Amino acid sequence: MNCEVCQLKELDVEHFEIREVLGCILHTILFHRALGLVRPKDVDLQLFEITYVQCADAELEKKIDEKIGQFIDRVDKHPNKKTQICLSFYEVKSKQATWFTNKVERLHWEQWYINLNVAQLPKAHSGKSQHSKLVVDPGEVALEERDVRRAALEASLREVLFQIIKFVNEKRDHVPPIPNVEGVSFPYEITISSSSDSAFGMDMFKRMLQTGHPTMLS
Amino acid sequence: MDGQISNSHGEHGRFEQILSQFLLKSLHIVLDSRVPTIHPYNRKNDLSLGAQAKKSDKWFSLVLGDRPAALDNLSFWHRNLMDPMIIDIILVQDVPNYLSQPSPKAQEETVIERWIVQFEYVRTTTPQGGDSSAAYKKTYKKLIILLRSLFSMMRLLPAHRAFRKLCSSSKSCDYDINYKVSSFSAPFSRSEEELMKQYNFSPVEAQQGCFSISVTYRESLSDFNLETSALFPPQIISDYVGSPATDPLRAFPSTGKGVCATSFPSRGFQSTSTHSERPHSWTSGIHRGASLPHKQPLSGSPPIYQSSGRSDLSSSPTDVYGHRIPNYRLPNHYKNNNFDAYQLSPPFSPSTSPSPPTHLTGGNFMQSRLRSETSPVSIPHPMLGRSPRYLSPNLSDTSRHSLPPLSPRNAKHDSSSQESPSGMRSLRKLDLSKAGELNSGMPISYTGQKLSGDTKDDSGRFSGLLSSSGSPRIGFSRSSSRISFPDDLDDCDFSCPFIVDDVDTSDLQSSQNLGVSKTLEVSSQVISTARKSHDAAVGALVHMFRTAPPLRQDSSCYSSRSMKQEIGQGAGSSSAFFLPRKTSDALEELRAYKDMKELLLSKSARMAAKEEA
User: Fold this and answer.
1) Name one GO molecular function term (chain A) (predicted).
2) Is B25 part of the contact surface with chain A (CB cutoff 8 Å)?
3) Contacts of B148 in chain A (CB under 8 A)
4) For residue A181, which of A12, B11, B284, B489 sits 20 to 30 Å off, Cα-Cα?
5) Which domains does chain A have, with CATH numbers?
6) Are A139 and B261 in contact (CB under 8 A)?
7) Looking at chain A, which residue has its C-alpha nearest residue B51?
8) Residue B448: left if φ>0, alpha if ψ -120 to 50, beta else—which one?
């Protein structure tokens, strides 16, 4: 079984748009992968004229909201980094219990990478604070720019949803058999990582290898 | 044999079942998402209530709710399962009747979407044996995914908006959506095809063939003027700010800013406030003469003024550097519009004003006005260009007190606005120049602030000449015969080396003396400010002594240099009084002492010679 990876198109969002955009994408993916019995629920976005479908599952909603909250926290802590969310589905293969390990192995068969480029907050605020003349004109220009940007984001988000549907349709063979459960049928995990984290980790690892740092032994 | 036949029948039956259910489900999905009559809006409640889904509804793991009875009877529409099922979504619009006669309105029908759901039968030669159950499961699983994507796609296509509007709009729309199901349909015309786009879902392969869904849809429905922009119900804006017309006392932030801008058009007034301030109070505050300088955005925002304007004077304003500014009392005469010119410029940037003292005073004035409503008393401050940040920690206690005139002459000087600035100007000139200039070249540095000593002179005000290093400045004392110190400063702990002795200063240049005395007069007023808080003043003095630069031989060039330095450093940096000392400064000072010593020695020698003679 191979692992299918889908890198979704990168979206430029503002901080207050994160929740809606991320929720829309995550729920759409999960709706297509929750192959147990579901009741679909239409959700209209507040900021965009887009309707997406989610499983009417309170627990799933709660989990997704939590993850989005974690993502937003991560973005707030690391404003200058690109934070990525990875939604991955896996199968659980329990290894034979040995003397040393009794691990449960996870075989990922599908990974979705959601790339959000969050615009920095100061940009928005600095526009407000630089008032050396009448406020009206700069405000209007800012509003126009915001409308343009909003429309572009809506189109991009729509493209991402199309991208999900296309991927879901084209790759079907790798999906494991559906267990007899309701709702989300396959175990999944959502991981959040910042752009430089992996780079940092790799650098550290390389450095340790080169220098033979004593902490390596621990 | 029989088993095989029955199996094949069974399999065929299973396949037919899957196929028919697939067609039904896809029809349900399409019509449910497009035709309001098929999908009444309240039907959603059934799903949300967690009602037990019918077994027939559980097909493909997608619970859609009760299927309309009309749809159940698929065979009515679809005789042969192998034929494609074509679903046309039709937009029905009333054609405007241009004829005068009341004929029934014509309706225009346009196919905005065409869905083709079919099973393409492929005769395969591969044996049908094997694990067909697993194959069916796989096929079923893929059909589930296909139908999920169909469900999602229904909401992404343009026609969905028209459908939602139709469902949500309480009043009748000028259009309607209808449908037609058939196994064949007339192809689109060329012009229609140009406006349509096609999307094919990936087919699901099965043993007998493949299931496929495709759609041809109109890319844009703008031609129909369906007014789909206001699709979602209007939301109540909870924090709506009313227009000034409805609520004149409440202003938009922009309005407030606009008021500010118009009030100070030539000042480049920075209306940076994001608070919605009452324009009235702001405007009235502007015209309240005394409070005008407070418009100076010490922190760059009107609310600072506002809070003070409303006599909320508990908190002193912060200057541009975010430090608390003590309130100084300023003379009544400063209440006039003299300071208008400076009200919007930072009080502590001397570069913007030709007269720094006034500038600073203006700033002080602002601060004091913010603090108290009583009549201000003039505090001509010799600490020109010095940041209040420096002053505030030391003189905050004194801030409340006016500078009482130390003598009648002091009072006179206090009340004269013109003299003080000039005095301060000359003081500024001298603050870095040595009094040695007055005293035949002896370098003396002074800070012009606190002094202890006797009030000697008829001017009786000046008490502010101090040595920066604290070393005895005998020469200065000689020159400061006209310098008087306020009696009040006697209780200052600090022993000032410049306690005036009544020394003959006849050999001093008179003009310079006058200049010095004037500046000293001015300085004394400042010093008297400090007398009220001895500890604070002592601290200030000590600090000054430590940081004050020595006086220079050439007062003019030094003062200009000091001005430049001050300008260069900006308001927040050390003033001209407190230039950093360098080795060269110390050497020069040493040289000056040597000269002084020699001079004294020569004088004493002369006097001795006279006596002898």
Assistant:
1) protein kinase binding
2) no
3) 31-32, 35, 168
4) B11
5) 4-121+137-217 (3.30.900)
6) no
7) A39
8) left
> A174 — contact with chain B (CB < 8 Å)?
no
Q: Are strands A104-118 and A11-13 parallel, antiparallel or unpaired?
A: parallel
Question: Over chain B (613 residues), what is each successive 10-residue block's mean pLDDT?
Answer: 62 81 90 79 48 76 78 65 87 72 71 91 64 83 93 92 81 80 85 89 88 91 65 62 60 45 42 42 38 42 41 43 45 44 42 44 45 51 46 44 47 45 46 45 42 43 42 43 44 43 46 51 54 76 83 52 48 50 88 93 90 75
Give the span between the Cα atoms of B159 and B499, in whole angstroms: 95
Q: Which residues on B lie below 8 Å from A136 (Cβ)?
A: 254, 258
What average pLDDT does the segment A154-172 reach? 92
B385 to each of A9, B184, B497, how far by Cα in Å? Answer: 58, 92, 26
Cβ contacts of B233 within 8 Å, gap of 6 or more = B168
In this prediction the ipTM stands at: 0.82
What structural domains does chain B harbor? 10-39+57-218 (3.30.900.10)
Q: Is the Cα torsion angle B326, B328, B334, B335 positive or negative in sign?
A: positive
The verdict on a CB contact (< 8 Å) between B63 and A37 is yes
Tokens found for residue B547: 């940081």
Which residue in B456, B461, B448, B334 sits closest to B404, CA to CA?
B461
Q: Provide CB contacts within 8 A for B126, sequence distance 6+.
A: none
Q: What are the chain B neighbours of A40 within 8 Å (beta carbons)?
A: 62-64, 151
User: Measured in whole angstroms, how far is the alpha carbon of residue A12 from the centre of its chain?
Assistant: 13
Distance CA(A8)–CA(B5), nearest Å, equals 49
**A38 vs B274: CB contact, 8 Å cut-off?**
no
* Residue B213 at interface with chain A, using a CB cutoff of 8 Å: no
